[in-house]
Amino acid sequence: MSEMTDKPLIVAGKEYQSRLIIGSGKYKDFQENLAALDASAAEIITVAIRRVNLGQDANEPSLLDVISPDKYTILPNTAGCYNADDAVRTCRMARELLDGHKLVKLEVLGDQKTLYPNVTETLAAAETLVADGFDVMVYTSDDPLVAKRLEEIGCVAVMPLGAPIGSGLGIRNPYNIRMILENATVPIIVDAGVGTASDASIAMELGCDGVLMNTAIAEAGNPVLMASAMKKAVQAGREAFLAGRMPRRLYASASSPIDGTFF
């Protein structure tokens, strides 16, 4: 099956042709971020409300002056929040800054060393935000039961980590990701842990609906070139998943059939 016959990614009722989502942190400036965004062909960019100016400070440059919300979906996130109350408050502030924007990325962290998700607080925040009318894309652990519970709460996408945020370790537990995928009816997007293009391809080959990354691009030697590589990796991984890989075999198998061969 070719890329042309694939269905688009649908999040909160909106269609996206790209299955890559990138971030807006750690770039040297907004212009480099925009160049990487263009090279990646991503249509969604996630923004840490507590760290990036979207108009909170009228005396500082705003990301929205460089990256237009008319062209891209701005996905405000709650990075830096360590409890449900702070995460909910941050999402409500984002909604005010972005004129009623409902789509948010929820992440509630457990500690500053691991940046691992605090699942208890994440569940509580998700329930509050969904009840308050938000479309919640949620960062979580790779626990299949937690992922299913977040879907049941009403999150529009569940985003299990591939590895800890900013680690670049790749997909450490593909088996849990597969279990999450088998039971999901909303998009499953790997979030965190991707380090290079092959990691993104692996996530897509598992059947994930998309990949979200920031550090892998922003901290690359050439962020714009890495963004281009990630675009291709996500596309290749998706096509490989749709095509269906050959079975793994313990022993060799001849590339050409030998039946009917004359010797």
Summarize the structure.
The protein is an alpha/beta fold. The chain has helices at residues 30-40, 84-97, 119-131, 144-153, 174-182, 197-205, 215-218, 223-243; strands at 9-11, 14-16, 20-23, 44-48, 73-77, 103-106, 135-140, 157-160, 189-191, 210-213. β6 (103-106), α3 (119-131) and β7 form a beta-alpha-beta unit.
Blueprint of the fold:
Layout: E1 9-11, E2 14-16, E3 20-23, H1 30-40, E4 44-48, E5 73-77, H2 84-97, E6 103-106, H3 119-131, E7 135-140, H4 144-153, E8 157-160, H5 174-182, E9 189-191, H6 197-205, E10 210-213, H7 215-218, H8 223-243
Parallel strand pairs: 3-4, 3-10, 4-5, 6-7, 7-8, 9-10
Antiparallel strand pairs: 1-2
Q: What are the main properties of this structure?
A:
16% strand, single chain, 10 strands, alpha/beta, 263 residues, 3-stranded parallel β-sheet, 5-stranded parallel β-sheet, 35% helix, 8 helices
Please provide a written account of the structure.
With 263 residues, the chain is an alpha/beta fold. It has helices spanning 30-40, 84-97, 119-131, 144-153, 174-182, 197-205, 215-218, 223-243, and strands spanning 9-11, 14-16, 20-23, 44-48, 73-77, 103-106, 135-140, 157-160, 189-191, 210-213. A five-stranded parallel beta sheet has the order 5-4-3-10-9. Strands 6-7-8 form a three-stranded parallel beta sheet. Helix 4 runs parallel beside helix 5 and helix 6 runs parallel beside helix 8. The mean pLDDT is 93.
